[in-house]
Amino acid sequence: MAPDMDRVFHALGDPTRRAIIGRLSLGPQSVSKLAEPLGVTITAIGQHLQVLEETGFVSTKKSGRTRSCRLESAGFTALERWAMEHRKMWERRLDVLGRLLAEDDD
C-alpha cells in the first residue's frame, strides 16, 4: 500500500527526520548512533523513526539490545511518483498556455 502523501510531506517537513535520512544514506545505524550528533534523546529518535517507518522511508530491526535502522525505498518511490504526476499535469497546462499565447501573437 502506498503511503499517504500528507504523511510523507509531514515526515520530510521535520529537520530532525531529514537529518536521520541523511545519516542513514551513509548506511545502517543503531538508534543510539543516530541520536549522538543530533542532540536529542533516544526516545525522541524513536518517535521520529516511527513516523519515518510509517511512511516507508526507514525500517528498524531489533537484535538483542540494539535496534538498527536502514533506509527503505517505499517513501521515496511514493514521493517520486507524486512529483512526476504533478509535473506532467503542469507541463500539459503550460503547453496549453503556450499555444494560447502563440494564437494571440498571430
So, CATH architecture? Orthogonal Bundle
Which structural class best describes the helix and strand composition?
alpha+beta
Fourth CATH level, the homologous superfamily: Winged helix-like DNA-binding domain superfamily/Winged helix DNA-binding domain
Write down the CATH topology: Arc Repressor Mutant, subunit A
| Cα distance spanning the termini | 50 Å
Which stretches are low in confidence, meaning pLDDT under 50 for 5 or more residues running? none
Number of strands: 3
Which CATH class? Mainly Alpha
Instruction: Output the helix-strand order.
Output: HHEHHEEH
Strand content: 5-15%
CA radius of gyration:
20 Å
The residue-averaged pLDDT reads 90
Helix content: 55-70%
Strand order of the largest sheet: 1-3-2
Give the overall shape, derived from the CA principal axes. elongated
Total number of helices: 5
In total, the number of domains comes to: 1
Largest sheet: 3 strands, antiparallel
